[in-house]
Amino acid sequence: MRAGVLGVGLAVLCLVTAGCKKEQPGGQTDKRGAASALRLGFFPNITHAQALVGQDSGAFQKAVPGIELKMFNAGPAAMEALTAGSLDASYVGTGPAINTFLKAGRELRIIAAAVDSGAVLVTKTARTPADLKGKTLATPQLGNTQDIALRHWLGQQGLKPGQDVTVTPLSNPDILGLFLHGKLEGAWVPEPWGARMVAEGGGHILLDERELWPQRRFHTTVIVTTREALERRREPLKQLLRAHVELTRQWQHHPETFIPRVNAAFAKTAGRPMDEAVLKDSFSRLEPALQIMPEQLKQAAEHARQLGFVPSSDLSGLVDTTLLNEVLREEPAP
Predict the structure, then answer these.
(1) Contacts of 227 by beta carbon, 8 Å cutoff, 6+ apart
(2) Does residue 40 sit in helix, strand or coil?
(3) CA distance 205 to 212
(4) What is the largest CA-CA distance in the chain?
(5) Model's pTM, two decimal places?
(6) pLDDT (tens digit per residue) in 302-319
(7) TM spans, by residue (predicted)?
(8) What domains lie within the chain, and their CATH numbers?
(9) How far apart are CA 48 and CA 327, in angstroms?
């Protein structure tokens, strides 16, 4: 889960220039000849909070000497790089992760959670599901996490996408722009775009997606790798997870200092920091996470199958938290 926030239409990966290392002598060598300890993908998005801070602070570089960090703007591009062997791991939304697992030989593995929740349906005038009939809604990408969630929810409300409601895939910046100009009734979007639609466009949160899930939690961002990388680069992956766990603990225990660090890192990729009110509102719906909820993933896959986006909802073999559990056992007792 969950979508490229910056750069309209960008699907090309770019190497992060600040605080990142290129291939290092002595790193592990894959069968394509590339030498680096680990190649990690992430997005310039607050739903990749640990990745933003880990990259900007040097925590990843310290934990995994020789790590190569690559920034993406779309889940499919990151997953294509992973399956092609030019990435070893990536922060990504659950939608692209599940889709890649089911369509690319079941080789992908989810090794940890990162961020839960943080998606909302924001509308201009609608205050009930019935008010959406005849209106146009947007999602960040056809078949992505929010798109599947919206289409499934509309069906539960007795509304057929394409007949009763028009659902249009648009980039998040385009969604905000059209909403501000009254060209959209609303959108199902990840943070901070929901908070921005409310703050800048006078939007109303018709539905917080947490209301649809047990314990009001659902995975937005996870860490993925491949079966082959788990075999060949086990120690660098474990080092990465140590850093990820430490960053997650900082968020859990000291959000008052961690969240400003996310904004500072975000500013370096976006060119300016996020408005403080928008940042606070966004993080009120985002939750740090480590452990995977397999049943939630299975339900998300079933929704995608019912809508025709994936051929099956069988996720057996997708989750492997062996390394995460080893790292968690290393933590000192509270």
Answers:
(1) 107, 108, 109
(2) strand
(3) 14
(4) 61
(5) 0.86
(6) 999 999 999 999 999 999
(7) none
(8) 14-116+219-330 (3.40.190.10), 119-216 (3.40.190.10)
(9) 20
